Amino acid sequence: MTAKIKGISLFNDAFSDKRSTSSLGQMDDQNDPVNMILGLKALRKAAHDSATFQSGATPGRIVIPSEVAIRQTRQIPFEIDPPEHSGFRELLNPWFKRPLAAVYQVKLQQIIDQTIAHALEKDSVDIVAEFALPLQSKALSLLLNTSINKAQTWIDWGTHVFRSESSNLDADKANVLYNYIDAEIDKTMAKARPDDSATEDLYSVLLNAEVDGKKLTKEQVKGVMILTFAGGRDTVINAITNTIAYFSENINDLQRIANEPDIVNRAVEELLRYFSPLTQMGRVATEDTTVCEHAIKADSRVSLCWASANRDEKVFSHPNSVDFDRKVNPHVSFGFSHHNCLGATHARQILRQLVLTLANKVADIKVVSADEDIEQLGEFSRKVGFNHLVVSLSAK
């Protein structure tokens, strides 16, 4: 008999020692060093101070690893600062809040039901490639308000948009996404606007929109779409995969949700805090300044290390344990302040409906094999998810 694989749901805090001694970590990223803000209080302060720590630097520079070498298009509204940022958020927020609507949730539920049914039919399934990736891609078709048939193209791109087996920043692979978006924008520009606004996709909305009295340029539309495709891909896949990994070793917690469905929101927020699907995001200092009494030079990079802040023992009691009864949970897994994640509502809705459906339909989850995805971040080594997670699901 094969021995049970243990520790699948364990995500150690890679930043604990450094956070307690200096509150700042360091890493090099393509010869462009990064100072990592590790504590929650200092991180929130820096995230709120866009005048000192800007997002509107050279396109791609605030991302870690930097994407300066593989794109020139500015992701919008992610890579612009107030006050310009506000007009784009006002335009985009209503669209990205659509997952709160009942009709949206019905369609999302159909996708989730089909995904789980397919997994239950098989002896085993790779949760990353055969479950989380198709679910994320099909759910994206809802967010864009386009045909679900397009999702197969996005699934065929693989788990990572910019990363291949040979490189963490694959320009050729990135160009597949950029060329696809260019072609979709051109097709949308060539066709008449639908008479019924309910049939409009996000491309149409953007091409016919104005911000601060000016129509969006093609480059601005492309910037929004790159963010929409890339920003919620790896993170949602990680969140889904890590959630299932957790329940494989804590099946009683899944049964508790079946018995107490009212706790699902609290459970999802706690899983997001614990796993932190995105480790960090950068900013660029506009002037000489200090963080936690450490000098930061103008034009140098800092990171807002969400994963470290989410384990800050000064804020969270028993931060390295998953606690569905945690009463206060100011996690920053979706960022903080004006640059909080545009797709947070969509991601949360996927996880809420997925967890509830798993609780009602799945009796047990057994891990067959696992290959952990470990990030190397200078002096830190952090598990962010899985390259492969093969499991067997048993139906109730």
Automatic annotation (TrEMBL):
Say which family it is in: Belongs to the cytochrome P450 family.
Gene source species: Shewanella electrodiphila
The molecule here is called Cytochrome P450
UniProt xrefs under PANTHER family = P450, PUTATIVE (EUROFUNG)-RELATED
